[in-house]
Amino acid sequence: MSTGMTSQRHLGMDWLRIGAFALLILYHIGMYFVPWGWHVKIAEPLEWVAIPMRALNSWRLPLLFLVSGYASAALFAKLGSAGRFVRSRSARLLIPLVFGIIVIIPPQPWIDLTGQHGYTAGFGHFWLHDYFRFGALDGIVLPTWQ
Asked: Residue 133 and residue 146: Cα distance in Å, rounded?
């Protein structure tokens, strides 16, 4: 099965990927300043920040899916079989996802719970006793991949 992909790098797609992730980082920084809800917020939201954030809302995820789809098609063409592709993507995506769920993400729901729900336990107690409850704590389903 031919995908029409070549083995050469597409520098335009590389730069599009760099731009997409730069926008993703700026978007998440902007979430601190906008008037709608998020985990942590500035005391006085900046109304003007909502304008570029709303402009990004409708196309930030389709852009990431476009970049990911191109990269996946190129990798599939390089590996040549569905089995090799699935193994490769699983190693590249599932291992970091599990690491993120266990190590990187837990501070987010803890900050959310302490700042907006009155949770009083420290982070260590939260991670050891509440984060892996596989149920809801004050409406937040745990563990989460946020």
From this structure: 16
- State pLDDT tens for residues 33-46: 999 988 788 889 99
Would you state the torsion angle of the CA atoms of residues 4, 22, 11, 57, taken in this order, to the nearest 10 degrees?
Answer: 40
Residue 74 is which amino acid?
A
CA distances for 9 relative to 15, 79, 84, 98, 140, angstroms: 11, 15, 20, 29, 42
Residue 27 and residue 54 in contact, taking contact as beta carbons nearer than 8 Å = no
Cis peptide preceding 96, ω within 30 of 0: no
What pTM value is reported for the model? Answer: 0.67
Q: Which is nearest to 146 in space by CA: 86, 95, 103, 84?
A: 103
What whole-number distance in Å separates Cα of residue 23 and Cα of residue 14? Answer: 14
- Of the candidates 20, 33, 116, 107, which has an alpha carbon nearest to the alpha carbon of residue 70? 20
